Each structure stands twice: as C-alpha cells, then as structure tokens.
Amino acid sequence: MPLFLALYNGGRSRMGQAMASVSSCMEALRDRGQCALIPFITAGDPNLETTAAALQVLDRSGADLIELGVPYSDPLADGPVIQAAATRALQQGTRLESVLEMLKTVSPQLQAPIVLFTYYNPILNRGFERFFQEIAAAGARGLVVPDLPLEEIEPLSKAATTAGIEVILLVAPTTPKERIALIAERSQGFIYLVSVTGVTGMRTQIESRVQELLTDLRSVTDKPIGVGFGISQPGQARQVMQWGADAVIVGSAFVKRLSEGTPQQGLQSIESFCRSLKTAILD
Amino acid sequence: MVFSPASSAALGLDPSSSQRPDALGRFGQFGGKYVPETLMPALSELEAAFYQYRNEPAFQQELDGLLRHYVGRATPLYFAERLTQHYARPDGSGAQIYLKREDLNHTGAHKINNALGQVLLAKRMGKRRIIAETGAGQHGVATATVCARFGLECIIYMGVHDMERQALNVFRMRLMGAEVRPVSAGTGTLKDATSEAIRDWVTNVETTHYILGSVAGPHPYPMLVRDFQAVIGRETRAQCLDTWGGLPDILLACVGGGSNAMGLFHEFVGEPSVRLIGIEAGGEGVDSEKHAATLTRGRVGVLHGAMSYLLQDDDGQVIEPHSISAGLDYPGVGPEHSYLKDAGRAEYYSITDQQALQAFQLLSRLEGIIPALETAHAIAYLDILCPQLSGSPRIVINCSGRGDKDMQTAAKLLNLGEA
Known about the structure:
By secondary structure, chain A is an alpha/beta fold.
C-alpha cells in the first residue's frame, strides 16, 4: 500500500499496524459526524477461541471500538447476564494471562481499538506496572475499571500513561454536577456515562433522564461521551445517539446472544445484531 | 511480634492516634472507597449524616434509650468461674476469665448495636427502604428487628447455603416481616450475599439505606460500624474498673469481618498494656484450602469496596472461604484489623472447625452458656493461650452471640445420644 494511503487511514490499516488509540478513534468518528458503536463481550465465554472469533466478527460488522471484559469472581457492577458469563468463563479456566495471549494474537488483525474492562483487584494483584505493560503489549488501548472511582485512580494513572493506555472514567446518574466536571477532566478517550442507576443488564426502556445527563456533561466537557448500561435494542441505541451521545455501548445483549446455542450460532447471532445496531445509529 | 513505635511511625502507623481513619477513609494503606461511581454520592451523604448526628444530643439520647430499654444494655461482664478453674494451674493460679455477655442482647448477638444505630441514621436521612446482607443470620435478624420496630421495608440478602444451615434465623426474619432473598451465586455464602446487597444498593440508592453488618465495606462503614459497636468496649472498661479497679490484660474475640472484635478493641487500642487478640476461622486447617483465615493467610487486595487482607488466588480472583460458622465464612476482613495487624498492635490467630466445636461444648457444660459457633472460636483459643501465660492475667472474651441458631448444625456433628 502506498505510504500516503496508510497515513490517510489514520493508522487503522490492517496487518500488524498499531490500532488507533481510543481518543483518536473517537475523534475521527466525531469528525465524520458518526456515533461510535462499542460492543462488550466477556472473554472466555464460552471459550477463548470463540472470543477471538467474536472480536473479528464484531470488528468487521460495524464495531468502532470493542470492550473486552476480563472475568472476575465478584463482579459488583454487573447484572445477571454478565455475572453468569464471568462465572462460566472462570469455570472454563479463563485467566488474565490466557486472555492477553489470545488478544495478542488477534489484535493485529483488528481495526477497532480494544478497551479492557476489569475490576480493580486483579490489577492491584498483578502490580500496576506489570499489568499495564502486559495489556499494552497484548494490544489493548483503553481500560475501564468499574469499581475504581475518581478518588482512587492516582496510584495507577502513572503506569497507565507510561504504557500508553487510556483510562476511561464513569459518570453515573447520581453524580453531582461539580463532580461530573472533575471526572470529565480526568477521563481519557471518552467519558463513560452510566445510563441507569443500577448494574449492567438489558432494560426495556432508556430513562429519559439520560438526555439531561448528556446535556449536563456536555456543558462541562468537549470530550466524547459514551453511553452504556441497559442499552440492548437498535431503537434504544438510535435514541441515545439522537440525544447526542458520541458512542453507544451495548453489553449484556451481546453476551447473551453469544452464549446461546453453539459457538457458531452465537457468532452468527452477534454478527447480525451488531450490523442492526450499526444501521440504527447511522443517519 | 514486637511492636516498634519508631518503625511504625515511619510507615504512618500510629495506633494510638484518635484520627482513624483519615479523611479519605484510610487506616494506613487499608480502607478507602472502591465502589461503582453510582454509590459515591450515597457514601458521602452517609458520612455527612454520621458526622452530623453522632454528637447530636437528641440522637445520642434516642440511641442510648433504645440500647438500654429495647436491647437490654449494659450487658454483664461475667466471671466464668468454672472455665477459669478448668484452665487453672495445679497451684490454683492462672488466667481469670471474664465473658462480655453480648449474647444476652435482644436478638442474641452484638449485631443489634450497629443495626439500631444505622436505622436511626436512615430514619433521619429519610430512607424508608432498608437492605442488608447476612451470613449467620444474626445481622439479618438484628436488621429485621429494628425495621419492624421502626416500620421500615426490609430486604435481607442471604446465601442459599447459609439459609439452609441457619434456617431458624430465616424464619425469625420472615416472622418480623422481612423479605429474605436467596443468593445462589458463587458458594451461596456471605461474600455473595454482600455482593448482591451492593448491587441492590447501586440500583435503589436514592430510596434505600444499606445497613452493612460488619466493619468492612467502603468508607464510612468500617468507621461507622466500629463506632456503633464501641459501646461494648466502653462498658467493658467501666465494668473492669468497677470489678477490680483496673484494665483487662487480654481481650479476645472472634474475627470474620471483625465487628465484635473491633467493638471490644476500639476503647483499648490506645492502652499499650492491653493485649488484643483476634481469632479467625481456620476451617479444616489453614494449610488446607478450606478455611477463612484472611489475616493469617491472605494478601492485600480489594473486596466489597475496601482494601484489606483478602483470600485470593494468583490471578486476584477471590477464593471461596470455608468455616463451620456462617458468620466467619468471609474471604475479607475489616480494614482496621489489617491495619492493627501490620502495626503490630493486635495479634491474629486461627482455630479450626473441630477446635471450635469442642469449645462450643466446653462452655455449654462448664458455664451453662451455649455460645454461637463464631464465639466458640474465641473460647477455643484459651486452650492455646492459657498455657503460655504466667501469673493470673485477666482475660475478657467477647461472648458475641448465643448458639441457639446453631443447634441444627451442631446436632448433625455431635453425637449426644438418641432423641
């Protein structure tokens, strides 16, 4: 490929080139006036081979970034679907090391930047420097830690910066306005707006309050905003996009589809679901 | 372990300091708030309410009145004469053993001290829905009790395994109008019930107060629960002074999350002459995989919102603990205990299921007091402690709960003849 074409692709070309950072990917989409689609899947459910295949399926079916959940024994912020997926993955013997090995093999073939989702204890247990070096080496570009609020991020932020990992912080419906500004300032890549007062999982309706929260956030930051928790249908994704979200994050609905039937059926199911979500958020 | 003030000061460990935890909820490196963002404002609100009301005369008066007339405080400091004789040397000298009778509280354990304090806070904060986790069921019963007393909606999360071994307490909670929600995730014990209670709180935080039952969880809980339980130590100090005009020499208590131990210890942490000993559940032995001896075998980690010692595997996954006693069956421990351990201020040892069962029978036969299986762990340590002592030191054991709830479990394990 001629050099200028590779540059034009903004580093998003296939075959061995580093995938874009979370923030540059989000900026590029925003420049094109597009809302990003971010599917979430749990690593190791039903097994890591399927996870590897799923990452590739999602990458070519409209995912702009992909959130990859590392299974944890005590997932406090997760509802029943992702809890059950984590339990199955752990029963399969899925370990952080094997997740990263898998990711290292697959990530050079992906365009969508990978954002790891993991609880705090496995990070603490591994040691900050080692953890961030290893996930960066495996090809992750961002990190979400659902049980790590603003007050506790300092110890790991240096190691994250050194390794080039962007740490994405969460804002909840209960977060007061002045605190929203502080979180927005520290969040990297985008700001993760939790759309429900609750844990992850599918809801029949998206609270209209999300629209106000988006407005509140918008008034204190220029950074992109991703909305997640509770979005499970194309219509809901479209609604959130129309309210002004820069990204829509869909988790449990993917995890559920991927776990139903054989791995092959699961992969087919998430492929068509991913395309339908993408279509819904393209104007 | 020898406590060296110089090295501890360098580590920022000063157990005699009254400012514990610090403004961020830290006991040295332990504690903190590791929770989903949704809960952060609720924790701040709770902390503010606690600071506002704890020194308010009307609040104190209401709490003191209820502790006296409803709970039955002060609880006696009882001289266990026959237990003392049992451990006496041939010349008649030996440890003088006293029991702080928290088992005589309304609902049968120390748990009600905290449940009552928190429900008064919840009322003032305008929260009408109460949730709680429970292991042995004692905290669940205490919470159901105070909710009935104040007419509040009450939901108790309890592991399915614990519901089976503490069936009597499940019935008691339901009788008082609480809804008991079974938790089948993980091994269906206290850890899983706690996670589920936190998930409920994340979902209903605007209307709900979570009455956490131990000195664990995110700040301000370890401080708040400790301060509501500290009445145990305050009474003990006054009773010791009345009885022999001095301090106790040794305090002994069982530790799961650690609320009864912290309640007894807190008053004496700044008294260097008083030995503080916490006893963990050694299950089938701390060298087996089936135990709950967090401080003995754990590594520093984060569970349920706090940094503390934690039973975890090489990957940082939380290990399912094991203990004969549902109330000690927890893979974490309150952060202040981790702090007191590292500061060398308190000592922690473990007792196996078998040793606890023997002590359960010993106290029943010698004193006519049937202790909870949790409490039996503290009693059992006398077997190890007494032979190491010289002179006649005064030991106060926190008799944290009564054993009525454990009859089914004990009957299965002990052969006391045909019915």
